[in-house]
Amino acid sequence: MALASGVRFAPRALLRPWALLRGTTLGRTEPAAGGGGDGARRFGSQRVLVEPDAASGVAVMKLRNPSNALSLELLTELVISLEKLENDKTFRGIILTSDCPRVFCAGLDLTEICGRNPAHCAEYWKAMQELWLRMYLSSLVLVAAINGACPAGGCIIALSCDCRVLADNPKYRIGLNETLLGIIAPFWLKDTYVNTIGHRASEQALQLGSLFPPAEALQVGLVDQVVPEDQVQSTALSEMARWLAVPDHARQLTKNMMRKATADRLLRQRDADTQNFVSFVCRDSIQKSLQAYLEKLRQRKG
Ligand SMILES: CCCCCCCC/C=C\C/C=C/C(=O)SCCNC(=O)CCNC(=O)[C@H](O)C(C)(C)COP(=O)(O)OP(=O)(O)OC[C@H]1O[C@@H](n2cnc3c(N)ncnc32)[C@H](O)[C@@H]1OP(=O)(O)O
User: Fold this and answer.
1) Which residues of 72-86 are buried (b: 16+ CB within 10 A; e: fewer)?
2) Which of 70, 75, 82, 108 is catalytic?
3) Which residues make Cβ contacts (< 8 Å) with residue 204, sequence separation at least 6?
4) Angstrom distance (rounded) from CA 162 to CA 126
5) If you measure from the C-alpha of residue 301 to the centroid of ligand 1, how many angstroms do you get, rounded to a whole number?
6) Ligand 1 in contact with 279 (CB < 6 A)?
7) How many CB atoms lie within 10 A of CB 194?
8) What percent of the chain has pLDDT over 70?
9) Which one of 73, 112, 178, 239 is the catalytic residue?
10) pTM for the model
11) Catalytic residue list contains 153
């Protein structure tokens, strides 16, 4: 499997991705609902459903994990689906959206870093880096159709796309709220924020752990469009058409020119970033607060 980073990254899950997917449908194709014609074959895995439309060259990728928390399995399946579409010259764009009601993506799956050993935390963080690198540098146009809450790691996923369309629902807030959980966004995430909304706005939002409701997210430039919930998909498709109207080679080289320095910074310090993450999250104090936070989330549900 070709990796965005070259040779250094080899988490067990990605060296043996199919082992994680035993019993799932990844790699199998089936007719899309209401489809059946050319390009209407969908494929997917337990946690990622891909609905490709060969005629338009656009695939819709739907996340379908509980709350779309970014478990190691979900990260792995996302990378595999992305790679599959990248390698198929039929496709020029992906619309990323959620199949879970009210949640686009709940961010890092905290159960992957709470009560786990350092080796697991390292493997998990490398998978997170890998997904970000692949999405941020993807040659395809990525449009996020954000149809639910989008905190922290969910916002990372959205920020790594080229364009963001958010449903106009005050409950669907988006932002990097890490500080409020007592954790710190890594430098590459901070860089992505700065690239999107500028330095001063990022400084404020990161320190305050701001989660922006739709109108404010639009105002600060975190999303490109806010539309009624039932128009998120159609607006994402219109945005996609606008981006695909540009010749691929020119758009791709321009994207690379704009993003490469940010990605290279992580590539140069990937191991150190992993070590920082592991030593930080494995601290007793951080483990205790993660445990308390997870407990609160579970109780809130009941
Ligand atoms: C010096 C250098 C140090 C470097 C350190 C780097 C640290 C890393 C820094 C940044 C990267 C990113 C970090 C993150 O992403 S942290 C995660 C942040 N996410 C959240 O805080 C969201 C938490 N969830 C919610 O607020 C809500 O669940 C919701 C708004 C997303 C959805 O609400 P609702 O539909 O009401 O769902 P429930 O609350 O009922 O949840 C359902 C179910 O899912 C569980 N769950 C939710 N979120 C998570 C999660 N992020 N991880 C694990 N599990 C989650 C929840 O507990 C319920 O579970 P169940 O009871 O078992 O069904």
Assistant:
1) bbbbbbbbbbbbbbe
2) 108
3) 210
4) 23
5) 12
6) no
7) 16
8) 86
9) 178
10) 0.89
11) yes
